[in-house]
Amino acid sequence: MPLPEVTTNKKAAQRRSQRLLLRVPVLVERSARGGQARQEDTETLAVNAHGALILLDPPIEDGEHLSLTNKKTGEMQACRVVYLGPVESGRTQAGIEFTNPSPQFWRIAFPPEDWASYGKDTRPPAKI
Fold first, then answer.
1. Do 79 and 97 contact (CB within 8 A), yes or no?
2. Measuring CA to CA, which of 36, 61, 75, 125 is 20 to 30 A from 2?
């Protein structure tokens, strides 16, 4: 039986940027099979400099392309689905990645890369 913390740590090590739990209202435009577009109002569960984790109505396909609009700023970004997670209240968790880098899309400052190194400080102790 795999250990959940090992999996979590492995996934965290593969991330390109820190993830922040942040609810941001977004509008998602998706192209259904047959070419007809539909829109969904949702919000992020978590964000990072390269995308977000959001809830979407099924069906969702891995690799699906969509447009994401930040409802607070009106800015739009092209994205693709890179992760499909568990279902919550009839909606599927979907990890999305920006097609083009957009570190300022969320209008927040992300913690530095070494933020998670709590307890790993290599500086000598302060002299009192």
1. yes
2. 61
